[in-house]
Amino acid sequence: QVQLVESGGGLVPAGGSLRLSCAASGRTFDIYAMGWFRQAPGKEREFVAAISWTGGSTRYAGSVRGRFTISRDNAKNTVYLQMNSLKPEDAAVYYCAADTSRTIVPSISVNSYDAWGQGTQVTVSS
User: Fold this and answer.
1) Which range is least confidently modeled, 8-17, 65-74, 85-94, 95-104?
2) Which of 40, 18, 22, 39 is nearest to 31 (CA)?
3) What span, in angstroms and rounded, lies between the C-alpha atoms of 126 and 119?
């Protein structure tokens, strides 16, 4: 099994930046892609960004493209989400997830990911 631990959330003013980290442990060699999702109160969990574990292929939700950057450090088994120009609507609990399904292209679907972190809160003040 893969275990994931997120960190880096917090309170930031609109226009500010945060970097989230997700450290993977356990059977990390089973990971084919990593993703970031978010869930605001009363809303469904939604895709934010994803990256393939080896090839570096990335995908972004339209609402964050150009503002957020996903990256990985395989030596540290860690994925990052750099969030710039944050908006109040970016506020949510952010979750890291791992896909062990031998995918080539990282998925944007919640159902494709089989390991999840506990989440980290991001609050953006207007």
Assistant:
1) 95-104
2) 22
3) 22
Rounded to an integer, what distance in angstroms lies between the CA atom of residue 118 and that of residue 126?
26
For residue 47, give the nearest of 35, 56, 55 by alpha carbon: 35
Classify the C-alpha dihedral 90-8-120-60 as positive or negative.
Answer: positive
Token couple for 1 = 């099994």
Count of Cβ atoms closer than 10 Å to residue 42 Cβ = 5
DSSP string, 24-58: EEESGGG--EEEEEEE-TTS--EEEEEEETTT--E
> pLDDT tens for residues 28-87?
888 899 999 999 999 999 999 999 988 779 999 999 999 999 999 999 999 999 999 999
